[in-house]
Amino acid sequence: xxxxxxxxxxxxxxxxxxxxxxxxxxxxxxxxxxxxxxxxxxxxxxxxxxxxxxxxxxxxxxxxxxxxxxxxxxxxxxxxxxxxxxxxxxxxxxxxxxxxxxxxxxxxxxxxxxxxxxxxxxxxxxxxxxxxxxxxxxxxxxxxxxxxxxxxxxxxxxxxxxxxxxxxxxxxxxxxxxxxxxxxxxxxxxxxxxxxxxxxxxxxxxxxxxxxxxxxxxxxxxxxxxxxxxxxxxxxxxxxxxxxxxxxxxxxxxxxxxxxxxxxxxxxxxxxxxxxxxxxxxxxxxxxxxxxxxxxxxxxxxxxxxxxxxxxxxxxxxxxxxxxxxxxxxxxxxxxxxxxxxxxxxxxxxxxxxxxxxxxxxxxxxxxxxxxxxxxxxxxxxxxxxxxxxxxxxxxxxxxxxxxxxxxxxxxxxxxxxxxxxxxxxxxxxxxxxxxxxxxxxxxxxxxxxxxxxxxxxxxxxxxxxxxxxxxxxxxxxxxxxxxxxxxxxxxxxxxxxxxxxxxxxxxxxxxxxxxxxxxxxxxxxxxxxxxxxxxxxxxxxxxxxxxxxxxxxxxxxxxxx
Length: 562
Known about the structure:
Low-confidence stretches: 113-135, 553-562
Largest sheet: 6 strands, mixed
């Protein structure tokens, strides 16, 4: 079976063969446009067509490893550019240009095999595939405080980690050598010394010649202690008693559990083969890619696909990439979506025009795969982070009220187009006012964050989770009917009810009630919220800690915690 990298290699090799097969017809397009212009030097359309064909050849040939062909096409393109700015050529200059083009591209057809090794080398140079081992999310908890260790272990297990307690500092090095953990949570101070935890981490790093993500915990919140942790390359610092939800959030970010973030990239390029090449590269890096070869469809595709970054070429039929960028920026809905030009254009003035039109970056073709992936990932991640500040609830990190309503409306439209089911669940914590009154709002916030964490971990990536307001949450389940959504959510309900909540030295448990509706009830977003909300209140009235289907008396759970 081919590994991921081999699979990408085979796909790119297949696209290279398609490029080679289409190359003669591409040369014919260049010759036809040139002949049209020679026949009528006032034919600006033919001149523009010739320039676009040469521009495309300059980018695509280099992409598929035919560097010499791409470089020469770029030279021909550059020689042509003065004509685009109303310069004129004498008959002799035009004749010389035409002769050079016919001579080079005609000979290129019979000499493609000489360039083939370059293409082979281009695709053959790759690192040995990395076989990632299955991550069990092993966490070493190094601390002599047995009471706190047990509390942290219990919570981490609920959040899907495998915590292992190590009470003696001297046992840590042996444990690491035996089984390398994904992360270490370690106390700063031990009987061996005030900063013995830091010293031990440094020693392990030197002996093992590897660095393990490390989070330090301490009773001290002093600047000096925090600075020592930073100098030891600590990835986090928590004061006791440890906020376990915050600790889990830090570990999730630290370990990058979900490395495939699935950035949505829209590629707009009339060069079908080359756009497929870059599409495969980005998909192999875990991105979700939509290809658009007809720029006239841009607005409808933007609405349906909701890209987190656009990758455009400058020269396309109907309209240029610069014009397309300006059109996109005129819509307030897309004013912040990153636009990156991927083009063989090397004229600085034209690149600046692209930036003035709203572009965020300009990448020259051909481009190394690693650079393209890194550059686009960085911009897409920044866009996603900025959107999160607007669309996310500050306490839980889930979608806020406005965002969850927008997502529901969009998902309903998608479900209607594809004739697929969709369910909505409304959740409300049981007796939450009692929690706030008895333990304080800080503890109440901790409960809210714990539920948010459980929901994110237990549900699919495609499920849309939001904090609707107060202690109320909403979940959109795409491609799921109400009965299935209830069954999945019931597993979350059971798990959450077992999570111990802490307030000072007291332990308590919290449950939730929920209601589920789907498009069989209504296809109106507001009505669907109301229907699911009514079902949730039916759960409350029936004793709490249960889930009710809309217009149904079937319920799950029991009233043991009510």
